Amino acid sequence: MSYQSEIEKRRTFAIISHPDAGKTTITEKVLLFGNALQIAGTIKGKKSGQHAKSDWMEMEKERGISVTTSVMQFPYKDHLVNLLDTPGHEDFSEDTYRTLTAVDSCLMVIDAAKGVEARTIKLMEVTRLRDTPIITFINKLDRDTRDPIDLLDEVEDILKIKCAPITWPIGMGKEFKGVYHLLRDETILYKSGQGHTIQAARSIKGLHNPDLDAAIGVYAEELRDMLELVRGASHEYDHEAFLAGELTPVFFGTALGNFGVDHMLDGLIKWAPKPQGREHDLGRVDSSDKSFSGFVFKIQANMDPKHRDRIAFCRVVSGKYEKGMKMHHSRIGKDVRVADAVTFFAGDRSLLIDAYAGDIIGLHNHGSIKIGDTFTSGEKYRFTGIPNFAPELFKRIRLRDPLKQKQLQKGLIQLSEEGAVQVFRPLQNNDLIVGAVGVLQFDVVVARLKAEYNVDAIYEGVAVATARWVYCDDARKLDEFRRKAEVNLALDGGDNLAYIAPTMVNLSLAQERHPDIEFKTTREH
Ligand code: G4P
After folding, report:
1. Strand pairing of 518-520 and 348-351?
2. Is-contact 435 393, C-beta < 8 A?
3. Cβ 260 under 6 angstroms from ligand 1
4. 22 Cα: distance to centroid of ligand 1 (angstroms)
5. What does the radius of gyration of the chain's CA atoms come to, in whole angstroms?
6. Residue 191 known to bind ligand
7. Is 139 assigned to a binding site?
């Protein structure tokens, strides 16, 4: 197969949703279509007995949440789909944000009884940063739901994206009959209790087909009336608007009943963009460029206790990875030969032979790779746009055994390079302040410090309300600021200067007093 057709057939996406909307269930069904999943239900810690991986994964299991981001690849029809799982729990939003920089489209899942929920709003804001195309799946039609027209109105009003229904639901809850496919002009009938299989669903062509009346009775007339209304009130699918992130095709179904998920997948392979290029410091590279390039968006430690190591997740932006190839590690300016990159398969991993633009490869990391790092095989450049977010929660971390200060510092800096947490070292004292976006990160850090660095650490309260990275082009002004504000300045894990403010009022005063200094809530790697 030619290089170009390898690229054309790939789709790389992630699911965004509020917890409980059905992301895990949809992932399971999607993998069922791809035949990738051997044992249904091994994706989320809470359901799997056989995937006890490390102490900290034990913890996610106990809490019934998914902390890790995994990558799944599966064939669907004549395409190859990469699904990047994003942590469902709001505490791990930073990881989620960075994962969203590595995809070309997103599937937004909405619970039909609940509508647009808080976390979906936040995640949509993030997809807007790159105008990522969004496909929508409205889930749980086998339950009593809200009026579908209301739901679309809500998506349009709150998320500011136009909706183009591709399927339309018939009935709901116990009376859920199926969906009408507006583009195919056919009704696909739902049968309950078939969620574990790929259904050979019956479909009826045409809205005025007497078979339809025979199959769904009074619902047929209702559907015909409803569709007139829907066609008048909603948008038609517009490909350009979809690619610009301005319009979303909407599908209805039930993930649990495995109904509608295939319609959505058909839409994904047909409309979602093939692997896209990315901006770098010297310009832009397109996925059609045959020389290898990729960037690291996540680092994860001890994914498997059998291999106590850290894996850097690298999105291939252009070209092809081949076992044993040489690539340039741009930040450290060295060439490295990579023979042992891994691929991921619903939690398991295997040695990778080759990979193309759009794929995610796992690089073994012995400490030299950081989030945001670029690897290239041709021209040397660095990708931009992989953010760190200013933490909102802070604690001082202290050792039970004061002799292990070195290990503590090393552990924290490594965990911060992974993006598991952020660490701040004030200029004026020897405190170590841990900053997190979500409260659960604190527990993960202490558990991992103990398991991986053999340090026993505890937290204390600290008077820090927020942090900002500070920048100024004028070295003299920055120096003056450094002197005047030293009590509130700290270095983060990567030695970047940050202002740590005891209160929000203090921050605004500092901003007023130092108008030449930029106080930023994100920092690019
Ligand atoms: P999440 O990853 O987005 O958090 O959601 P998840 O798939 O875990 O789904 C949350 C709950 O909603 C689960 O039930 C799941 O079975 C249920 N669910 C998902 N899709 C559908 C659907 O189409 N219809 C109905 N009726 N339920 C659906 P749970 O009882 O919380 O979990 P579990 O005990 O089944 O694991």
Report:
1. unpaired
2. yes
3. no
4. 5
5. 25
6. no
7. yes
- Taken in order of first residue, the domains within the chain and their CATH numbers are 3-53+101-271 (3.40.50.300), 278-376 (3.40.50.300), 390-524 (3.30.70.3280)
In order along the chain (525 residues), what is the average pLDDT of each group of 10 residues?
Answer: 94 94 90 60 37 41 45 88 75 74 97 94 87 98 96 97 98 97 97 80 94 96 95 94 98 96 97 97 96 91 58 94 93 89 59 85 84 93 83 92 88 84 93 87 88 91 95 95 96 93 95 95 77
Q: What is the ipTM of this complex?
A: 0.97
Ligand 1: which of 44, 137, 199, 256 to mutate, most ligand atoms within 8 Å of CB?
A: 256
Cα separation, 386 vs 95, whole angstroms: 11
Task: Determine whether the shortest distance from the Cβ of 143 to ligand 1 is under 6 A.
Answer: yes
Residues 253-291, buried b or exposed e (16+ Cβ, 10 A)?
bbbbbbbbbbbbbbbbbebbbbbbbbebeeeebebebee
Going from the Cα of 147 to the center of ligand 1, the distance in angstroms, rounded, reads: 20
Residue 500 phi/psi, 5° resolution?
Answer: -110, 115
Q: Of 491, 365, 482, 504, nearest to 435 (Cα)?
A: 491
142 is in an annotated binding site: yes
Beta-strand ranges (E) seen in 193-309 are: 203-205, 247-252, 278-280, 283-285, 293-301
Distance 311 CA to ligand 1 centre (A): 30
For ligand 1, whether the C-beta of 360 sits within 6 Å is no
In whole angstroms, what is the distance from residue 463 CA to residue 182 CA?
Answer: 57
Residue 141, annotated as binding a ligand? yes
For 5, list phi and psi in degrees, rounded to 5: -75, -30
Residue appearing with tokens 């040397």: 380
**280 vs 284: CA distance, rounded Å:** 5
Give the nearest ligand 1 atom to 143 CA: 26
